[in-house]
Specification:
Length: 445
């Protein structure tokens, strides 16, 4: 037999190369896993030895309405105030600033005049230990912004959970795949040489699809069935496409100022009708005026969560920047706590837009029918970005009228008609459809 080469040695070399690459990749993962986490700087121990955690609770309960740690509000920023002022002076000021000002204390008078002579609430109920705890909280260093999990910042390189670049992993996989392809070619070449040495002829098989298509065309039954299926599928998709014309369900435009219903209506529990108060008494729910926003945001100029709190893909810095857009629109200077008079219009993008020939009255549904906003607008308390939840089609409205009972208890207007219709239909509860809710003139006039 003719010698065709030592193919076993070739396989051995390739196997050794694969084993080497796998060992290198595994050692890299092991080194990353074994690497110690970077040590964080311990917070500086505040003077007086107060409890910063208890101080945070006291600060939020007594001080946060007028003070922030790093920005001026009704009063000065309080971070590091224990280093700027004497401890005994701070105790007197916190317990009764009015008496300290009346005594003629120069520092007290200066602070009082600097902040528009706004009197500070006295806190005689706070003990010296409570004040030490508050000062301990204000003496903590400012937290540095943390990277949001799953969101790469500008210039950030993508990495997997172990910190290894995706490019490295993909590169290793590409090398392994190339080696496998090369191995297959070498094995095929070796087998061909062995066959040739043994006098075995390898025939090249050629495939052609033409006979298959010809047999399909000649089979009239298959052609007929395929044509019918294609026509039915085309009609189905065409009908679905045309039925969606004018339906904007899930429409979620980007607004000029990002407003999170999840934070306001969900986490903070603000009632929908606090902002959309016109829904109780008017045809339209209305767009809340920005002064409604400023009822809270005069004193909330930044995201109020912890430094590592995130909502979906947005960061504390993102929400703080959106609040600043609100200030720019109303002309509010958070440093001086005054309106500048320079305002900018906010061009909100409308989401729910019924056709002009459709009449819908919010007060009739909210105040009279007692429907919750979520009935039509969906679980808005979970929406980070507001969207059109319902299709708002005629069929959707009609089905709601057929399924929703009218609340007639305590409503003298409905007493007579309810008694007559209940007797007619033999039911105790009447739906909006049974009360005439399917008449064309109810919505189209």
């Amino acid at each position: 037999m003719k010698k065709v080469g030592n193919h076993k040695s070739i396989l051995k070399v390739i196997t050794l190369n694969l084993a080497f690459l796998l060992s290198v990749s595994l050692s890299s993962f092991a080194q990353e896993a074994a690497a110690p986490a970077p040590a964080t700087d311990a917070a500086a121990a505040p003077a007086g030895g107060g409890d910063a955690a208890a101080g945070k609770t006291l600060f939020n309960a007594n001080c946060a309405a007028c003070h922030k740690l790093d920005d001026k509000m009704t009063g000065p920023a309080l971070r590091g105030v224990a280093e700027r002022r004497d401890r005994a002076w701070l105790g007197k000021w916190i317990k009764n600033s009015k008496d300290l000002i009346a005594s003629g204390d120069a520092d007290a008078v200066k602070v009082f005049e600097e902040f528009n002579k706004t009197p500070m609430t006295a806190f005689p109920q706070l003990s010296d230990a409570d004040i030490d705890n508050i000062l301990a909280y204000t003496s903590q260093p400012k937290d540095e912004p943390k990277a949001v999990a799953g969101v790469a910042g500008p210039g950030a390189k993508p990495a997997d959970a172990m910190g290894i670049s995706n490019n490295v992993v993909l590169g290793l996989l590409a090398v392994i795949l190339a080696l496998l392809v090369g191995l297959l070619f070498m094995v095929n070449n070796t087998l061909r040489k062995i066959s040739a040495a043994n006098g075995v002829e390898v025939a090249d098989r050629k495939f052609s699809l033409l006979p298959l298509w010809m047999s399909f065309v000649k089979n009239q039954f298959l052609v007929l069935v395929s044509t019918i299926l294609l026509m039915l599928m085309g009609a189905y998709f065409a009908y679905g496409y045309f039925m969606q014309i004018g339906v904007d369900q899930n429409y979620a435009p980007i607004q000029p100022i990002h407003y999170s219903h999840k934070i306001h209506a969900g986490d903070n529990g603000i009632d929908c009708k606090y902002c959309h108060s016109a829904a109780r008494t008017s045809k339209n729910a209305g767009i809340p005026s920005l002064n409604v926003c400023m009822n809270c945001h005069k004193n909330i100029s930044e995201f109020q969560g912890d430094a590592d709190s995130t909502y979906v893909e947005y960061t504390k810095e993102f929400y703080t920047a959106e609040i600043q857009k609100l200030y720019d629109a109303v002309g509010w200077d958070k440093a001086t706590q005054k309106y500048t008079g320079k305002q900018k219009p906010v061009k909100w993008v409308r989401i729910h837009n019924l056709q002009d020939f459709v009449y819908f009255n919010h007060s009739q549904h909210v105040s009279v029918a007692g429907l919750e906003c979520q009935t039509c607008h969906g679980p808005v308390e979970t929406f980070e970005i507001m969207k059109q939840h319902s299709p708002l089609t005629m069929g959707w409205c009609v089905n709601c009228h057929r399924e929703t009972n009218v609340k007639v208890e305590g409503n003298a207007y409905y007493e007579k008609i309810h008694a007559e219709l209940s007797k007619k239909y033999g039911v105790d509860k009447l739906t909006a459809a049974q009360m005439g809710g399917l008449e064309c003139g109810k919505c189209h006039y």
